[in-house]
Amino acid sequence: MPPPLIDRPHHVEVPESLNRELSAAQWLEWWGALVACEMGEDHRGPGEDGDDTAPRVARILQRRQAVFDPPDFDALRTTPQLQALVRQHSRESLLWAGRTRRRNPPGRPPDGSAFSWSLVKSVAERVARTHGVPIADVTGTAVVLRVEGIWSQPTGPGHMLCSTAAAADPDVAIPLLRDTFVSGLGA
User: Fold this and answer.
1) Cα gap 13→150, rounded to integer Å
2) C-alpha angle 91-4-180 in degrees, rounded to nearest 5
3) What are 170-181's pLDDT values in tens digits?
4) What is the distance between the alpha carbons of residues 62 and 22, in angstroms, rounded to a whole number?
5) d(CA 115, CA 123)
6) Cα distances (Å, whole numbers) of residue 178 to 60, 126, 160
7) Strand, helix or coil for residue 16
């Protein structure tokens, strides 16, 4: 699990009757499904070619609805406690997320990417040279989260989550990018 968010949303009132251990376990499972869904979006599925985006978009929407389907969150029907909490707070949370997206995260240059483009390019080129592969084979996905401190977590070959502070600090970003690119070779 990532550290706390930088710009925390409103406080959520949790009913006394809620089984916190069960809800925490359910949240962890849902978090894993949300991350897997997000990380799987950049891969082509069977029958998807580069010219027709309709099958890719349909696959992405179907995968998203299987884990995140407001307003009823039927994907959480097997976890009724979590489903009730998410339903109760989803509108406020989605409004908060929209406001947060419009602001520039700490550590990110105005109108810039979380990682310096020149840094990404340099690391990718080094990985290609070191491993004797074409630069086109060096790929990776990094999802940058607005969480406190320097934090990162690999989530599979060629995939990672990290904080805005980790992406903005070259001493941290270089090994994160290198490890992500290397783990994605041949994936």
Assistant:
1) 29
2) 105
3) 999 999 999 999
4) 27
5) 11
6) 27, 8, 11
7) coil
Q: Measured between alpha carbons, how far is 76 from 15 in angstroms, rounded to an integer?
A: 18
d(CA 1, CA 94): 20
Report yes or no: 186 and 133 within 8 Å, Cβ to Cβ: no
E strand segments, the chain: 141-145, 152-156, 159-163
Phi, psi at 83, each rounded to 5°: -60, -45
Average pLDDT over residues 55-72: 87
Which phi and psi angles does 148 have, rounded to 5°? -70, 145
Average pLDDT, the chain: 85
Residue 10 has pLDDT above 80, yes or no: no
Q: Provide the b/e sequence for 33-51 (b: ≥16 CB within 10 Å).
A: bebebbbeeeeeeeebeee
Instruction: Confirm if 3 and 33 have CB atoms less than 8 A apart.
Output: no
For the entire predicted model, the pTM comes to 0.79
Angle CA(106)–CA(67)–CA(49) in degrees, nearest 5? 90
Residue 116 tokens read as 């310096």
State the virtual CA torsion across 165, 168, 169, 172 in degrees, nearest 10. 80
- 112 compared with 117, residue with greater pLDDT: 117
